[in-house]
Amino acid sequence: MTMPDLAVLFALAASSPSPHAAMASPKDPNLECLRCHRMATMAYRDERTGRVVSLAVDPAAFAASNHRKLACTRCHSREFRWYPHPAETAGERLRCLDCHRDDPKLRARGFPAIGREVAASVHVRRMGKRFDCFACHDPHSFRLAGADAPSLVAASNAVCLGCHAGRRRTAAPAARALAALAAKHDWLPNVALHWRTVRCLDCHLGDRASTDTRDTPRAAQGHRIVPADEAVRDCVGCHSRNSILFTRLYRHTAKESRAARGFVNAALLNDAYVVGATRNMAVDRVALAVLGLALAAIAGHAWLRWRLRPGLASRRSRR
Amino acid sequence: MRPTSPVPLYPGWLRGWHWTNAALFVALLATGFSMHFATPGEPLIPFRTARAVHNLAGVAILLLYAGFLAVNARSVNGRHYALRARGLVAGMIRQARWYLLGIFRGEPNPFTASRETKFNPLQRVTYLAVMYGWFPLVGITGLILLFPEAAPERVLGRGGIWPAAVLHALAAFAGALFLAAHVYLATTGNPVTEYYRSMLVGDHRPGRRSR
Question: Over the stretch A182-217, which tens digit does the pLDDT of each residue have?
């Protein structure tokens, strides 16, 4: 018996209807597929590479994903409806652009540009075609993070750490990988805080000139990841009024806040505090004005003291 | 008023504390404003340097402040910061009037420092506010910024570091204002360098006509 057969047997054994399945619409075309594929251990060993390939789909994650309304056979071959799956389905290779290239609803997201950006990224340059969209984005659980910074950061960094800090490995090597990664970032003060509050991407897209000024749709700009030695390494890249965070992590909120309150800083002031970037302009202006007036008053006082110093009048009258 | 003999007003430990405090204060203002107004190209102090100096100087000045509190709790020096309600307002008005008018007319300073009363009424109120109000505020907010993970996650629906950061920046502006006024008012002795001299060598020569 081959591995896929075994897996299917296990899946069938575990396929008694759950409350969740019972509540789902009987018309849900995905139920049939999920009867087997919902099993977390459903996998086979690829004979060529020897690697275990998971065939499991977490129904809860899928139900919360951006693709939740799609039937399995919208992306996968309709031949998968039959079981055992026909032999010709075995070589199926899907790509995001198969669906997304010409979808008018998604045109603004610039999927073709994303493809170009990924092709120029360090990942594809080093790994070639082995690195595809699915390396980072699982189509069965993919969902756009909220526009608020904390959820963006958590979702985005989880993707990077999935490979770079071994979140997919067992606990002990994962902890070692994370420690090694932290050591590589030891130039950064308060590494843990930085990792919690900014995305890896915010530095690892390189400096502004290499990404932001090019004629590339915004959504695609987050895909040309540069090698570590080209990442942003100067503090004022973020810690200044012209912070790159306003065009990256905070671009959603920055846009909203500019429209609503007239100044970009409010975006960060509501959410986080980034030294140098989140000055409240009104507070600064008032404080600097008060300080300026005080210095002027001191200068005036000193000048008067000099002009009215004792003996000056008598010296003048003698002259 | 005739000049009288010098009064030993500032013992060595106090002068050391004062000038160390002053140096740290200036370093903190310079590095703090450099980070607050950070600009690409870094025309002021490089961010990385400013951060390191600011953190070190901040911790050092807080240790010094702890020493100040301990000394004032155990020695007579603390009494200079105690307010006595009687005659305080009148004294403050008299002192303010001299700064605003009398000083230009060559009138003598209405206040003469002595070992018993080191600060004039305006100084007394200002130094009390600075040392027991401003210092704890800037110290606590500074510590929150130094250990941001200890700050509450959210305060009033905003990021928890935000209130500390804004208060710290406002306190810095107030500190700069204090420094400017302090450095200038220290020239109101007679001669103008008298107060600087006395804080350097320790004795004060009171009773000379001030302007």
Answer: 898 988 888 888 888 888 988 898 875 545 445 666
- Is the separation of the CB atoms in A279 and A292 below 8 Å? no
Residue whose C-alpha is closest to residue B126's, from B48, B45, B186, B205: B186
φ, ψ for residue B204 (rounded to 5)? Answer: -120, 135
Angle at B192 between CA B26 and CA B129, to 5 degrees: 45
Helices (H) and strands (E) in chain A, counts: 19, 2
pLDDT at A20: 41
Kindly list the distances between the CA atom of residue A29 and the CA atoms of A73, A183, B188, in Å, as whole numbers in the listed order: 9, 48, 89
- The full set of domain ranges for chain A reads 1-92
| A291-307 residue pLDDT tens | 999 999 999 999 999 88
| B153 touching chain A per CB within 8 A | no
Q: What is the pLDDT of residue A13?
A: 36
Q: Which residues of B touch A242 (CB under 8 A)?
A: 39-40
Is the domain defined by B7-204 classed in CATH 1.20.1250.20? no
Report how far residue B51's alpha carbon sits from residue B28's, in angstroms, rounded to the nearest whole number. 10
How many H helices and E strands in chain B?
8, 4
Please give the model's pTM, rounded to 2 decimal places. 0.73
Give how far Cα A197 sits from Cα of B29, B160, B173, Å: 27, 13, 28
Q: What is the mean pLDDT of chain B?
A: 86
Task: Verify whether the Cβ–Cβ distance B38 to A193 is below 8 Å.
Answer: no
The C-alpha atoms of residue B74 and residue B52 are separated, in whole angstroms, by 34
- Note the ipTM here: 0.86
Q: Tell me, what DSSP letter sits at residue B132?
A: I
Cβ proximity of A139 and A67 under 8 Å: yes
Take residue A29 and report the two structure tokens written for it.
Answer: 């075309």
Contacts 24+ apart (CB under 8 A), A309-318: A309/B211, A310/B106, A310/B209, A310/B211
For chain A, the residues whose C-beta falls within 8 A of a C-beta of chain B are: 189-190, 192-193, 234-237, 239-242, 269-273, 275-276, 278-280, 283-284, 287-288, 290-291, 294-295, 298, 301-302, 304-305, 308-310
Would the pLDDT of A6 be above 70? Answer: no
CB-based contact B83:B125 (threshold 8 Å) = yes
CA dist A314 and B2 (Å) reads 23
Query: Inter-chain contact A240–B158, Cβ cutoff 8 Å?
Result: no
Check whether B178 has a pLDDT greater than 60: yes
Q: Is B208 on the interface with A (CB under 8 A)?
A: no
Region label for B168, one of left (φ > 0), alpha (ψ between -120 and 50) or beta (otherwise): alpha
Q: Domain ranges in chain B?
A: 7-204
Q: What is the C-alpha to C-alpha distance for residues A74 and A93, in angstroms, rounded to an integer?
A: 14
Residue B158 β-bridge partners = B155
Interface test with A, best of B45, B105, B166 (most A CBs within 10 A): B166
Per-residue exposure over A26-47, b if at least 16 CB sit within 10 Å of its own CB, e if not: eeeebbebbbbbbbeebbbeee
pLDDT(B19) > 90: yes
